Amino acid sequence: MATVSLRSPAGKWIMVSTILASAMAFIDATALNVVLPSLQKSLQASGADLFWILNAYLLMLASLILIGGSMGDKLGRKKVFMAGILIFICGSAACGLAPGVFYLILFRIIQGIGGALMIPGSLSLISSSINPNERGKAIGTWSAFTTVVTMGGPVLGGALADAGLWRYIFFINIPIGIVAVIILWFKVAESKDDAADHSLDFPGAITIALGLALVTFGFLRMPAVGFGNWQVYLSLAAGVLMLTAFVIIEAKSKHPMMPLQLFANATFSGTNLLSFFLYAGLGAGMLFLSLNMVQVQGYSQLQSGLTFLPFTLMMVSIARFAGSLADKYGPRLFLICGPAAAGLGLLILSFVKQTTGPGDYWTTFFPGIIVFGLGISFTVAPLTAAVMGSVSDHFSGTASGVNNAVTRIANVFANAIFGALAVLFFAGALQGNIKNIKLNIKQKQEITAQAADLGNAKVPKGTNNDKAITQAYHESFISAYATIMRISAGLGFLGALMAVGFIRDKGVVRSK
């Protein structure tokens, strides 16, 4: 297929449509983190319910995004992209109308199916349609604009949640998606790999979906029933078996959704390992930072959203520039220093204790957010360009799907594992913090049982010393938050090590 210049009308319409559709999905993710406290109160959701609301979407996305990338390559990237957008906005409308937790989780699954068809389409269209010597710049532009809108998500989410309108986080996707579909229909040419076999890998899709669901279920059940319960180890064991079966199926399939030969390229393998560790740390860190600010530190949801503005400004000013530099000099140095700086930022954030509220922001959370934001800003575009540049054009949709799947799988595992760990850390700290409060055994049990709701834990009725118990809850949450943030920081550092060990500039196509 002939490629077009980034500056041509065709190139600009491709960029606008892909940015709008991607931003729609990313706003949904970031804004949802901020409105979770409001949603939790409105729907009477437990801590485990919150993680399922997040994971229902991520599970479907992670499970099907590989087949979504394959479908785009084989059936037409624009066609599959548009189908994904339409399913996503239907799921969003249903989420906005959901009467309870069960229905919201169900409709988030529909959103995930749409996202799996939509998200790989954006980068695949850019990589297959834009001239090779402008791809880094195009991906940098895409990263910058989608991140601006994405990081505007927390501000929008906070404002809507404080006004009691958290459901509009889902409704806002509808007009954005409709505009993207209209542009694609009238202004963007179809793109597909004419040499591709049109068969799809349904056995692979089914096994990875079951594997991820079983592993996630096992971790999410852990806080409620304990490590040794049969539900936990049986579901974890079955999940690992399914994921092993997925790899075997892909190795033997004539039409694999994840061609294993792509991983023979060290740069492709390294970038995906880096993505897994970095995005697991990023997902957990941002989720627990938002919960900490609203439920413990006394921020309103709008104030919590506004705290990410420095991050947004850095992404606007740095991402495209970093993409251009990666085109010229190669991505390796950026992919070592960026994740390491992001890890350092998360580590700095882990040392923030109880504050007096938003007035303390500049001396508490701000330094860590700045360092973290710098790290991510110098990582996103070079990382994406390295992934897409390490494979040939006819694998662009598959490569985008694999990398997106890796980041979503990282988020699923981060939510499931860190969700379980946070409850365990919180409960352990809480037992120590209530020792010196005058309570009978039954009251202590009732207080400890609230650990499942994390920062939304409530003082049980009939207990005295409400103030002391509330303080114990806050101290316990901050203790759990600190541990989670340090583990997340370690994952950032591990991502940097992947770049040191695997990524070589010569493995990436770049401009001369």
How would you characterize the overall build of this protein?
- There is one protein chain.
- The chain has 512 residues and is mainly alpha-helical.
- The chain has helices at 9-43, 47-75, 77-97, 101-129, 135-162, 168-171, 173-187, 202-225, 230-252, 266-295, 301-306, 309-329, 332-350, 365-377, 380-389, 396-433, 441-449, 466-502.
- It is globular and about 75 Å long.
- It starts with 8 loop residues before the first helix and ends in a 10-residue tail after the last helix.
- 59% of the residues are buried.
- The mean pLDDT is 85.
* Number of E-state strands: 0
Distance between the termini: 22 Å
Mean pLDDT: 85
Main beta sheet: none
Q: In percent terms, what proportion of residues is strand?
A: under 5%
Low-confidence stretches: none
Write the layout of secondary structure elements.
Blueprint (H helix, E strand, L loop, with lengths): L8 H35 L3 H29 L1 H21 L3 H29 L5 H28 L5 H4 L1 H15 L14 H24 L4 H23 L13 H30 L5 H6 L2 H21 L2 H19 L14 H13 L2 H10 L6 H38 L7 H9 L16 H37 L10
